[in-house]
Amino acid sequence: MKSPVHRCRDVEHGRGQAGAGAGAGTNCLQAEHRIPISKDVITSSSASAMWFIRDVCGIVCAVITWLLVLYAEFVVLFVMLLPSKNLTYSIVNGTLFNTLAFLALASHLRAMCTDPGAVPKGNATKEYIESLQLKPGQVVYKCPKCCSIKPDRAHHCSVCKRCIRKMDHHCPWVNNCVGENNQKYFVLFTMYIALISLHALLMVVFHFLYCFEDDWTKCSSFSPPATVILLILLCFEGLLFLIFTSVMFGTQVHSICTDETGIEQLKKEERRWAKKTKWMNMRAVFGHPFSLLWFSPFSTPDHGKAETYQYVV
């Protein structure tokens, strides 16, 4: 018995042979053609359902991410803000830090649990290919790993075990691929993590200056050695993640503006899609028109229901 992959290849080859016979000698190795397909046809049935990748490494990294944010929350609140004598300083910084931390975790959750743009698995069946009504000599390109008809700009992820539309990369920190449907949430996640890291570093500096001028036993509810250790660890964490997430944020914004994913840049793939302005590319990811909803992880961007994709044939 043949495997599903082999059966898919037989469908492709059989289609090519049938097209050759119907075309009275038409050569299948002709110039590349493209068939516009509605986005609804290639949208996974799990797009509206909960999406979660069962990858041990990704789950561990996601848990670590939440623990690090919660650690920063603990140090900021119980070491720096609550013991402070300045009530206004504590309220303003506490509200700002908690708001940014909440948005960062919400963005992380949306990036992790949103279908990044998976192509329906195993849809490369004989019946479905025949429904495409290909012309003689035309053959669709199918992924041999997940037996899916792969649209243009889609790549197979070995971790998700699916082909992902406009896949940028697989990020273990969000335990998911960064693709067409969740790139906005990933960009917001990196932005808010960078902001809370910067905010935490500034508060650590002010707290150290305050403790040096005052008595160390009065500037914190913890002992002086414990306070120093907690602040140094938070400073190291904040500096590390500020650099890392700032670089990721800049890389993602550049990728969006140039309309070229990380994989496409790495593979130096030939541009086969229409070139748009940077502003149009930003609106395609974050939604249009521009509003404060761009910065909300609870707002789902409208990528355009009438958008079409091209099957390489």
UniProtKB/TrEMBL annotation:
Q: Kindly report the protein's main subcellular placement as a broad class.
A: membrane
Q: Could you say which enzyme class this protein belongs to?
A: transferase
Q: Which residues form the Palmitoyltransferase DHHC domain?
A: 142-268
Keywords of this protein's UniProt record, alphabetized?
Acyltransferase, Membrane, Transferase, Transmembrane, Transmembrane helix
Spans through the membrane: 56-81, 87-106, 185-210, 222-244
Q: What is known of its domains?
A: The DHHC domain is required for palmitoyltransferase activity.
Give the GO cellular component terms, alphabetically: membrane
Question: What name does the UniProt record give this protein?
Answer: Palmitoyltransferase
Q: Which GO terms describe its molecular function?
A: protein-cysteine S-palmitoyltransferase activity
* Cell compartments where the protein resides: Membrane
Stated family: Belongs to the DHHC palmitoyltransferase family.
E.C. numbers: 2.3.1.225
The UniProt record lists the keyword Transmembrane helix = yes
**Membrane topology summary:** Multi-pass membrane protein
Reaction(s) the record says it catalyses: L-cysteinyl-[protein] + hexadecanoyl-CoA = S-hexadecanoyl-L-cysteinyl-[protein] + CoA
Annotated segments matching region Disordered: 1-23
Name of a matching Pfam family: DHHC
